[in-house]
Predict the structure of Protein-L-isoaspartate O-methyltransferase.
Amino acid sequence: MTAIDRGDYSRSYPYEDSPQSIGWGATISAPHMHAYALEKLRDYLKPGMRALDIGSGSGYLTACMAHMVGAEGLVVGIEHIRELVELSERNVAKQHADWLTAGRIKFVTGDGRKGFPEDGPYDCIHVGAAAPKKPTELLDQLKAPGRMFIPVGSMSQHIMIYDKEPDGTVHEKKWLGVQYVPLTNEDEQREYGF
């Protein structure tokens, strides 16, 4: 996280340990949540690995992940709001335009609930919004072995860590109580601001 300046990714209070609005009904998560995610995923963000960042927002965590996977790796950030994809690309280009042109980092517009199988399978998947239940469609895009970090639940949410073993079996661990915005579609986010 010290290698990627959060100030390039948040217009207001980038270093405050709280979520900040980035527009279009979205926020950049608090730094401690990004640190938790990177800590839990670090063994799956080694040089040359592939990662998927769902709900990539301003692109900050996507860039942190790209720093970790190195020049031979790939991180795909997916957002359903086109303006957020464009914002992410502008933010990354401030210090690391070469990562975009070299294909180390890629942002796409799409429904994160469906993942992005075109560049999968992934060593790890990070989800920055809460799924209502176990995300089986996303687990299908995870390598074996692989790990997913995702908030799950509606009223009561927890970070769930899903580990896919080399034989394809999936183990889950309820880790931390949280409150995230729900995984949704573009129309709902634009209309209701979540």
Q: What stands out?
A: The beta strands are 20-23, 26-28, 50-54, 74-79, 105-109, 122-127, 142-152, 157-164, 170-178. The chain is about 25% helix and 30% strand. The helical segments are 31-41, 60-69, 82-101, 136-139, 186-192. The mean pLDDT is 94.
